[in-house]
Design a protein that fits this description.
Elements: H1 21-46, H2 70-82, E1 86-88, E2 94-96
Antiparallel strand pairs: 1-2
Helix pairs in contact: 1-2
Length: about 100
């Protein structure tokens, strides 16, 4: 996934009193779509299978990030960056921050 988001331009979080539960749900759903798309891509790149606890797996197929509203996808990516889950490489590609295997 390629994103033209400069780390210095990561949107500032909206104050809690300005976000509805429906907005929070949409943002988390979009973040899940992006996370699992990146996870699938990196599994293919590394040629590895990824095992996750059932609790972390989506209950239904998630749409690809390309089907998300562009602004929502950008906000969700920014949230994942702030959480330390993804990073944007110098080439503009978004990558998961993965721990080295033990």
């Amino acid at each position: 996934m390629r994103l033209s988001l400069n780390l210095k331009e990561v949107p500032v979080p909206i104050p809690d009193d300005d976000i509805t539960q429906a907005d929070a749900n949409r943002l988390c759903f979009a973040a899940s779509c992006i996370f699992f798309a990146l996870l699938r891509r990196q599994a293919v790149e590394f040629g590895n299978h990824i095992a996750l606890p059932e609790l972390l797996c989506p209950k239904r197929p998630l749409p690809p990030p390309s089907e998300l509203d562009a602004h929502l996808a950008e906000e969700a990516t920014a949230m994942l960056i702030r959480l330390g889950v993804v990073e944007i490489k110098a080439d503009g590609n978004v990558k998961l921050i993965l721990a080295d295997p033990i």
